[in-house]
Fold this sequence. Notes:
The protein is mostly beta strands and about 130 residues long. It has one helix and ten strands, in the order βββαβββββββ. The strands form two sheets. A seven-stranded mixed β-sheet has the order 6-7-8-9-4-3-10. The protein is globular.
Amino acid sequence: xxxxxxxxxxxxxxxxxxxxxxxxxxxxxxxxxxxxxxxxxxxxxxxxxxxxxxxxxxxxxxxxxxxxxxxxxxxxxxxxxxxxxxxxxxxxxxxxxxxxxxxxxxxxxxxxxxxxxxxxxxxxxxx
Length: 127
């Protein structure tokens, strides 16, 4: 494991976290669930659950059988996404303290994206 350590928090500061080691698979998700919960596009990167320490109360919402979304119960910041049984958690890129050292790698669920914007950064797009 690398010496990388990243920290982040929700808007009000009640929930904070620390991630040891690299984040991978930085992705912008354009699905309707992510857009509704985040207010636009959900951008996140993966980390193994055993390398993430979360402090403070996190509420979990199962938007579908495929995954749970973790958010701060006080301010509502959408911080985490995890699929059961994977051993991974996705960390909201917007909640990371700067500098993040992370760059987006791809876009997913582009066929579901909102009609009010274009994706024009040249990164790979999956329907």
